[in-house]
Amino acid sequence: MSATRFVIGIAVNIVGAITTNLGTVLMKYHTAVRHGKGHYLAIGLILFCIGSILTFGSFAFAPQSLLSGISAIQFVSNLFFVHYFLKEPFTVFNVCGTVVIIGAIVMLVISSNKSETINNVDVMFRDFYFSATHGYFLLGLLAVILVIAFAFWMRTGAPIFWFSKSKWPKRIQWELSLPRSQGRVTRFLVPTGYTFCVAAVGAQSVVSGKVLSLIITQAFGGHVTQLYQGRT
């Protein structure tokens, strides 16, 4: 992989991540601050879509193992966007977290492998999607989600899915108001379980984005059949 493509991939990914985050903040600004007035929702949605497309396109230029870490720059930009639009204050924890993220991104770029050993769609499908290791990973993730869902049901009596007009949201709000839901253990386990599942699913989306970018790249290179194969 040439240095030019490597730099382009990083630059496009950073712009895409920041644009996506700005779009998300504008949509929240439209609801929380403007109370539905103005065109901020439409602008935020457009920016979110543009940022997602840029992030997706960047996977065709650089390794996804690098770009998935670079995308964390959106949390740094989020610190400034929410302060400006939503008037949320800077805190010591926010600043410390931002410093850690910036340091991690710098280390990731410096230590990252500038070449990519897998840049073929067939290899990605054979060695990842259709591999036994990937199957074990998905089964393990499903098991963790089921355990969390069962614990959630045991604690609140509510399922993890419900219709929009349901009694369960009020039931959960009542549960959260109880002293047992304010303990340190609960406040640690609930976010940790959520973060673990989201991180695992997010990792899958990064790899899927890489595969789709390779498919589109090969399609533009003349291999149009990649677009309508069953595995795609």
From TrEMBL:
Pfam families: Mg_trans_NIPA
Segments traversing the membrane: 6-27, 39-60, 93-113, 133-154
Subcellular location: Membrane
SUPFAM superfamilies: Multidrug resistance efflux transporter EmrE
Membrane-related topology note: Multi-pass membrane protein
GO MF entries: magnesium ion transmembrane transporter activity
Keywords from the named record: Membrane, Transmembrane, Transmembrane helix
This protein's name: NIPA-like protein 3
The organism of origin for this protein: Perkinsus olseni (Perkinsus atlanticus)
Gene: NIPAL3_8
